[in-house]
Amino acid sequence: MEQTLVLLKPDAVQRGLIGEIIGRFEKVGLKLVALKLVRASHEEVDRHYALTEEWMLGVYTKAKTKYDARGEAFPFADHVAYGSEIKRGLVEFLKSAPIVAMVLEGEQAVPLVRKLVGATEPASSAPGTIRGDLSLDTYALSNGQSRPIRNLIHASGTVDEAKHEIPVWFTDKELHTYEHVNDRVQYDAKWFLS
Ligand code: IDP
Ligand code: MG
Fold first, then answer.
1. What is the domain range of residue 25?
2. Which of 7, 8, 89, 141 is a plausible cystine mate for 148, CB 3.0–4.6 Å?
């Protein structure tokens, strides 16, 4: 079954939203297979956000698209410089206070969690999503203050990203295999048919 990594960033922990956010994942039927409160090291956050060409281009393009849509000039020309700067801020932010790390498992868990989390910019995230309902930050505000967007949560973007991220935060022993009632109610073909 697919697994995905979620981090509740310092803003989620400080705002008392741990229970609310985990509750949304439980209610949709995902299985928690690992969970902990962590004071992250520089090395952990550095490994977590791999500075790949794809990631830097993604960060750059999403931000530029928002500026373009508002008719504002995007003051950065280089995705490598921009991506590196965003990562530097994220590393400082995620190290600055305790965060919550978890692994969730279920049918197409990676896109399902991304759907529940919503778009990167809280102000553009749809109502009903975690970021859309519980946060309000913008590219304009965060970039104006030279800091990462405060969007409460990280969730793996792809299965490959999840495979890279999960071992950064959890050992094999910390990833639990256990039976959950949803294994029957949501996934067992024979449930209630006998
Ligand atoms: P995601 O968290 O929705 O997957 P990514 O593009 O992977 O978004 O970016 C990682 C994180 O970096 C975001 O969640 C956000 O906190 C921060 N971030 C991304 N782009 C910007 C930006 O242009 N300005 C400030 N912070 C940014
Ligand atoms: Mg991402």
1. 2-185
2. 89
